[in-house]
């Protein structure tokens, strides 16, 4: 039987009041906290208890938005939570996620071309299954909800509609939980980065202090000594020796001036003030010991903190080219479009295997590159493989968080 009565009998619900009780239990489960896994586990138990099914799996869209991860399951499969991953398009759940369409298999799963056995979930132990997408507006797809029974079960249209309603409730809660997790992860990353930034600032101050003490200060002391000696020799009417001391003093003054400029350049490259980011990148390219250098550089000015970060990243990337790449050609691209800037540094050198280099890796100076990209709320992507060169791409917004918040408030005011 189809329709509402069929739905109740098909899922083991006795009347509309019990159906409403199930929906209420789902709502209460979704209100228990922001964690995705506890939420999925609670909902899985509510659904199996209410529908007299044997097992429920809640597969949640992961942060790549291209695969599913088992986030909740009824025992004994709760031990597999977080270990089962299903790419879009693979298996029944992957097909449901990709097509946003429910699937019912009453029996003989192996005859369905979409079915893919997952040993950890022991699909062969169950006869019938129904799989529905968990979707909501405006969040979209949040995952896939699966119910299985050992005995043969006819899941009709009413059953599917009811499970879609549950999936819609769960999708909104999962979306909120994912956003909460991402926000918390970002906050933790910002906290760690703030600590690293303070440490880096103190380290940089200490380095500059040592350079000034060991370099500039010592040169100035020697300069003062030679000037005093020259004055004494002038008084003694010894111009030849006085001239020698003055020449030494002049050389020391030139050395001290060069060291002072180096120290100032470490704080902020003067070339940025004189030429802007495009001109500064051109100046960096001139120093490359590479015959073929291609430049595509927008000459618009960008915020000062973005200029400094991108310049330092380019410096690091080009130093890596010189040290490691053995390249014959280098390309530097700076593109400014709308409220975004993109910097790309490519070479045709030896390349390297990026797969072992995670987000925290310091290989090839990538750790400092990623840290500088984080400073300007940007992203760093490295593409390389042995023998095929390397491309580093930095993409960053040109607006500050305050600008974005102000724009959002303005938009809301206009909307309201």
Automatic annotation (TrEMBL):
<keyword id="KW-0408">Iron</keyword>
<dbReference type="InterPro" id="IPR029016">
    <property type="entry name" value="GAF-like_dom_sf"/>
</dbReference>
<keyword id="KW-0808">Transferase</keyword>
<comment type="function">
    <text>Member of the two-component regulatory system NreB/NreC involved in the control of dissimilatory nitrate/nitrite reduction in response to oxygen. NreB functions as a direct oxygen sensor histidine kinase which is autophosphorylated, in the absence of oxygen, probably at the conserved histidine residue, and transfers its phosphate group probably to a conserved aspartate residue of NreC. NreB/NreC activates the expression of the nitrate (narGHJI) and nitrite (nir) reductase operons, as well as the putative nitrate transporter gene narT.</text>
</comment>
<dbReference type="InterPro" id="IPR004358">
    <property type="entry name" value="Sig_transdc_His_kin-like_C"/>
</dbReference>
<keyword id="KW-0418">Kinase</keyword>
<dbReference type="GO" id="GO:0046872">
    <property type="term" value="F:metal ion binding"/>
</dbReference>
<dbReference type="InterPro" id="IPR003018">
    <property type="entry name" value="GAF"/>
</dbReference>
<dbReference type="InterPro" id="IPR050482">
    <property type="entry name" value="Sensor_HK_TwoCompSys"/>
</dbReference>
<dbReference type="GO" id="GO:0016020">
    <property type="term" value="C:membrane"/>
</dbReference>
<dbReference type="InterPro" id="IPR003594">
    <property type="entry name" value="HATPase_dom"/>
</dbReference>
<keyword id="KW-0411">Iron-sulfur</keyword>
<dbReference type="GO" id="GO:0046983">
    <property type="term" value="F:protein dimerization activity"/>
</dbReference>
<keyword id="KW-0963">Cytoplasm</keyword>
<dbReference type="GO" id="GO:0051539">
    <property type="term" value="F:4 iron, 4 sulfur cluster binding"/>
</dbReference>
<dbReference type="InterPro" id="IPR011712">
    <property type="entry name" value="Sig_transdc_His_kin_sub3_dim/P"/>
</dbReference>
<protein>
    <recommendedName>
        <fullName>Oxygen sensor histidine kinase NreB</fullName>
        <ecNumber>2.7.13.3</ecNumber>
    </recommendedName>
</protein>
<dbReference type="Pfam" id="PF02518">
    <property type="entry name" value="HATPase_c"/>
</dbReference>
<dbReference type="InterPro" id="IPR036890">
    <property type="entry name" value="HATPase_C_sf"/>
</dbReference>
<feature type="region of interest" description="Disordered">
    <location>
        <begin position="383"/>
        <end position="416"/>
    </location>
</feature>
<dbReference type="Pfam" id="PF13185">
    <property type="entry name" value="GAF_2"/>
</dbReference>
<feature type="domain" description="Histidine kinase">
    <location>
        <begin position="310"/>
        <end position="400"/>
    </location>
</feature>
<keyword id="KW-0004">4Fe-4S</keyword>
<keyword id="KW-0902">Two-component regulatory system</keyword>
<keyword id="KW-0479">Metal-binding</keyword>
<feature type="compositionally biased region" description="Polar residues">
    <location>
        <begin position="387"/>
        <end position="401"/>
    </location>
</feature>
<dbReference type="Pfam" id="PF07730">
    <property type="entry name" value="HisKA_3"/>
</dbReference>
<dbReference type="InterPro" id="IPR005467">
    <property type="entry name" value="His_kinase_dom"/>
</dbReference>
<dbReference type="GO" id="GO:0000155">
    <property type="term" value="F:phosphorelay sensor kinase activity"/>
</dbReference>
<dbReference type="GO" id="GO:0005737">
    <property type="term" value="C:cytoplasm"/>
</dbReference>
């Amino acid at each position: 039987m189809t329709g509402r009565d069929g739905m109740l009998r098909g899922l083991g619900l006795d009347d509309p009041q019990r159906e409403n009780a199930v929906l209420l239990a789902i709502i209460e489960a979704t209100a228990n906290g922001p964690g995705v896994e506890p939420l999925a586990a609670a909902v899985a138990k509510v659904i199996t208890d209410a529908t007299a099914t044997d097992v429920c799996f809640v597969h949640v869209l992961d942060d790549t938005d291209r695969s599913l991860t088992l986030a909740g399951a009824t025992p004994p499969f709760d031990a597999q939570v977080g270990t089962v991953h299903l790419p879009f398009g693979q298996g029944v759940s992957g097909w449901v996620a990709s097509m946003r369409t429910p699937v019912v298999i009453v029996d003989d799963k192996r005859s369905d071309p979409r079915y893919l056995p997952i040993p950890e979930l022991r699909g062969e132990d169950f006869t019938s299954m129904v799989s529905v997408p968990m979707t909501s507006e405006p969040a979209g797809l949040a995952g896939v909800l699966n119910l299985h029974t050992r005995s043969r079960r006819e899941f009709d249209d009413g059953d599917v509609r009811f499970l879609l309603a549950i999936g819609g409730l769960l999708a909104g809660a999962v979306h909120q939980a994912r956003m909460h997790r991402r926000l918390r992860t970002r906050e933790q990353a910002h906290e760690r980065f703030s600590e690293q930034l303070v440490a880096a600032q103190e380290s940089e101050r200490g380095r500059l202090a040592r350079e000034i003490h060991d370099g500039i200060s010592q040169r100035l002391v020697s300069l003062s000594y030679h000037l005093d000696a020259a004055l004494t020799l002038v008084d003694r009417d010894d111009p030849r020796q006085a001239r020698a001391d003055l020449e030494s003093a002049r050389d020391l003054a030139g050395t001290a001036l060069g060291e002072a400029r180096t120290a100032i350049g470490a704080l902020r490259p003067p070339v940025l003030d004189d030429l802007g980011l495009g001109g500064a990148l051109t100046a960096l390219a001139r120093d490359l010991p590479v015959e073929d250098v291609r430049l595509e550089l927008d000459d618009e000015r960008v915020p000062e903190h973005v200029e400094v970060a991108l310049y330092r990243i380019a410096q690091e990337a080009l130093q890596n080219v010189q040290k490691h790449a053995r390249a014959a050609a280098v390309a530097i691209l700076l593109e400014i479009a709308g409220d975004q800037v993109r910097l790309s540094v490519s070479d045709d050198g030896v390349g390297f295997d990026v797969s072992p280099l995670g987000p925290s890796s310091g290989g090839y100076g990538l750790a400092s590159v990623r840290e500088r990209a984080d400073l300007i709320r940007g992203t760093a992507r490295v593409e390389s493989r042995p023998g095929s060169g390397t491309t580093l791409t930095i993409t960053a917004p040109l607006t500050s968080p305050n600008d974005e918040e102000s724009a959002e408030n303005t938009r809301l005011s206009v909307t309201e």
